[in-house]
Amino acid sequence: MTLDQWRGKIDAIDAELVRLLNERTRIALEIGKLKKEAGAEIYVPSRERAVLQRLEELNGGPLPAESLRAIYREIMSASLALERDLKIAYLGPRATFTHEAARSRFGGSVEYVSCSTIGDVFSDVENRNVDYGVVPIENSTEGAVTHTLDRFVDTTVRICAEIFLPISLNLLSRAGRESIARVYSKEEAFGQCRRWLNENLPGVEQIPVGSTASAAERAAREEDSAAIAGWLASDLYGISVLERNIQDVSGNVTRFLVLGRSFSAPTGKDKTSILFSVKHKAGALYDALSVFSGSGVNMTRIESRPNRTKAWEYNFFVDFEGHAEDEEAKRTLEKLSEHCLMLRVLGSYPNMGGTES
């Protein structure tokens, strides 16, 4: 076949794709009406997971699974935006990794609201100023985000999903590498790229700023400057990516939580997060945690934080495999409550298992 004939086939397929996408959207809008009449949540993580898993099973290639997920993320994002003016709060400013994580889950068609603090994200969700919020909870190299943990003590919001985002640091600039006179970024980002910078930009001035996003914004205004930031900063500030993944150590992943007002429905592969406190006496925590070892429920994470109202007493945050509505989990939580002064289920949601799917 000739080039024009192959292009004719592409054009015909595109026409059919557009027709089918609009038909899918019309059906999604009908589903949205039914959800609205029933007072149900617009965003349903359990259904999202099922759709993406089914698509991966149907995919015979050559389109990679990651690319297929990205395409359908935007298709679902457009449908959500048409069903309702969906607002997502995130820890800002624009183009931070939290913004990137939110975009990876909700796509580019919904409205995003930048918040200056983690507490503001919680408040916006709690006060119904937004539909959902996205906050960091832990990093694979730096550990827990304590501001997020502390905010769960006195809030009514619930965890309805989790996001795992590999942290990729990139060199962004309007200039070629040989013309760069200075580099902007956060102190932490400079530390994570120290070896690469020494080998590839020796002697270039390194200027710390408050965020990788503000670094990209400044570099976008200056012809001889560069920034170390995420890929989203390149897109939002119109600045080229000169080098990708310049961090010295790969495998750095941050886990984020999607905050809402209700739990996700069970999927068969779920995770539950709880908060509890125990009596201030010898063996109290051991007695509480022994409930898990005897139940068959797999505890995957535990963090402690000081109780802000009582000196030398602590709150404990635990993640375990399973949904709070599972019979085994119910029995475990009932037994655990016998050892606790306070016990709250913060959320049950699809278990992403350390990778985004």
TrEMBL record:
Subcellular location, record wording: Cytoplasm
GO molecular function: chorismate mutase activity; prephenate dehydratase activity
Pfam families in the record: ACT (PF01842), CM_2 (PF01817), PDT (PF00800)
Reactions catalysed: prephenate + H(+) = 3-phenylpyruvate + CO2 + H2O; chorismate = prephenate
Chorismate mutase domain residues: 1-87
ACT domain sequence ranges: 273-350
GO CC terms of this entry: cytoplasm
Protein purpose: Catalyzes the Claisen rearrangement of chorismate to prephenate and the decarboxylation/dehydration of prephenate to phenylpyruvate.
Protein name (database record): Bifunctional chorismate mutase/prephenate dehydratase
Organism: Kiritimatiella glycovorans
Gene from which this protein is expressed: pheA
